[in-house]
Amino acid sequence: MPHANAADESQLRIRNWSILLKRAMAAKNLIRIDISSDTVCPWCCVGKKNLDKAISMARDRFDFEVHWHPFFLNPTAPAEGVDKREYYRNKFGARAESIAARMHEVFRSIGLEYNMSGLTGNTMDSHRLINYAGKLGPEKQHLLVEELFLGYFTQAKYIGDKAFLLEAADKVGIAGAAEFLDDPNNGVQEVKEDLARYSSKISGVPHFVINGKQELSGGQPPEVFLRAFEQSV
Fold first, then answer.
1. d(Cα 65, Cα 210) in Å, to the nearest integer?
2. Position 25 pLDDT exceeds 50
3. Is 210 helix (H, G, I), strand (E, B) or coil?
4. 34: which strand partners?
5. Has residue 22 got a pLDDT over 80?
6. Are 214 and 232 within 8 A, CB to CB?
7. d(CA 72, CA 102)
8. Which residue from 1, 87, 108, 230 has the fewest beta carbons nearer than 10 Å?
9. For 204-224, what is each residue's pLDDT tens digit?
10. How far apart are CA 152 and CA 48, in angstroms?
11. In Å, how far are 68, 126, 148 from 191, measured between CA atoms?
12. Rounded distance, CA 106 to CA 97, Å?
């Protein structure tokens, strides 16, 4: 009988080691992605959509953690907002129409309709909210950025409108957003520090840093992200 117990214990140890070995072999590498972006940058929206597609294609091999960081395409943009079409005409002149047409085409390629209606303006409040969401977890932050992009680029929502920001926050379950945004000083210092740390040495967005090794700029296609994932581990 003692011999039988010893044999049983040996088999149990072997089985446990086998389970642990399989788990270790199945463990996936974690890929951290840091993204510098502005919430009124159309190519940032395109880049996010392509990144999301690449992540969905690679989830069987990797785990992902995405962090969003601020960038200001127009730091002096007015808080009250200006007509989007008028702003593009003033900024790009005769090229404004062709640029808009190109963005319509690009957005359709990712399943969205680009909307040039509404206002554009200062993005500080949106970056404050994104930074706040990041403290609740990278997944919440990533979902919030999606809602902000969809609202601004496809539904003519104004990125500086507090009601829109709170609507987006509510959709993804970000508690305390209203109280946070009520004080215009909340999060400003954090945004400035994040800007200095992640975005001070770049001149355009979107900018992606993958595992601190691979850097990509612009609305890259999914296959470029997939290649960068492989090269970063």
1. 10
2. no
3. strand
4. 67, 209
5. no
6. yes
7. 22
8. 1
9. 999 999 999 999 999 999 999
10. 14
11. 11, 10, 17
12. 14
- Comparing CA positions, the residue from 37, 77, 71 lying closest to residue 219 is 37
Verify cis geometry, omega within 30 degrees of 0, for the bond prior to 206: yes
Instruction: Give 94's DSSP letter.
Output: G
- CA dist 93 and 90 (Å) reads 6
Q: Rounded to two decimals, what is the model's pTM?
A: 0.88
| Predicted confidence (pLDDT) per residue in 177-211, tens digit | 999 999 999 999 999 999 999 999 999 999 999 99
Q: State the Cα–Cα distance between residues 129 and 176, nearest whole angstrom.
A: 10
Phi, psi of 8, rounded to the nearest 5 degrees: -65, -45
Distance, in Å, from the CA atom of 2 to the CA atom of 17, rounded to the nearest integer, reads: 23
What is the per-residue pLDDT across 58-102, written as a single tens digit (0 to 9) for each?
999 999 999 999 999 999 999 999 999 999 999 999 999 999 999
* DSSP letter for each residue of 48-89: HHHHHHHHHHHTTTEEEEEEEEE--SSTT--TT-EEHHHHHH
Please tell me the distance from the alpha carbon of residue 45 to that of residue 43, in angstroms, as a whole number: 5
Distance from the first to the final alpha carbon of the chain? 51
**Is a pLDDT exceeding 60 seen at residue 2?**
no
Token pair belonging to 208: 């992606």
Between the alpha carbon of residue 28 and those of residues 3, 61, 89, 195, the distances in Å are: 40, 6, 48, 31
- Quick one: which H or E segment has residue 162? helix 162-171
